[in-house]
Each structure stands twice: as C-alpha cells, then as structure tokens.
Amino acid sequence: MLGPVVERPAAPEGRWPTAPVTPHVKGSAMLTTPGEAQFSALIDEVDGRPTVLCRGEIDLSTAGALIWAIRQVTAAGQPVRIDLAATTFMDSAGLKALLQAQTDQHRAGEVVTLSAPSPAVRRVLEMAGVIDDFAIEA
Prior knowledge:
Layout: E1 29-32, E2 38-46, E3 49-58, H1 63-75, E4 81-90, H2 92-107, E5 113-115, H3 119-128, E6 135-137
Parallel strand pairs: 3-4, 4-5, 5-6
Antiparallel strand pairs: 1-2, 2-3
Helix pairs in contact: 1-2
C-alpha cells in the first residue's frame, strides 16, 4: 500500500498555479492545462508493484506532475516503476525528471524501471545517451 501523500513540487517558472491536480486512483496526479500539453500520471499496482502510469506529453508544463507521482511512490519506500507506453512526447524536462528519479533511487540502492517506453521516450533517452542507465521492461 502506498504511504502518506507528500507535497506537490513547486511550479516550474510559475507556469503551474492554475493547473489543477485532481486526485484519482491511489494518489495519482492529473495535470491538464488548456492550450498546452495534457498529461496524466496515475499511480496503481501492476504485478504487485506500485507503478506510475504516464499518458500524454511530458514537457516543462507537465513534468511537475510526473515528479509528484514519483515522489508518492518513493515516499512509501518503494522502488520506482514508470510505465511510459502511452507517453506521446517527452522533452528535456521529462528527461530531467527521470534522471532525478534515477539519482534518488541510486542513493537508496534501487533503480528506476521504465516499462514499455514509447518510441518518443526511447528516442530522447537514446539521444541523451542514458537509456542504459535505466532498467527497461518490454
């Protein structure tokens, strides 16, 4: 079971104050900003492990929701698994969120597992030369 809810991270460059974070299944975050990228990060158990299920575009305006969801899992003392199969776009802000999670998990003796990264995500990880830094599940 997931632990207590942790605080949502600060808005990146003041771009987040009007975007709602709506609770859904098991402490998830959904960020929808009209006219900008739409993204949701749902936390659920998949195969008995807490998993952050990402859908949509991860960019500067939405990476905070991903960070928030990852922190929900790590606050419960669980290793992080992130399902990126439904992620349609990811820029450097999404890459930074994943790398920060990996750094934090490495300090705790864990690794971040990326489940079924979409071609868009895989391309960014390959271009940055960091795809081998993560455990990848097909």
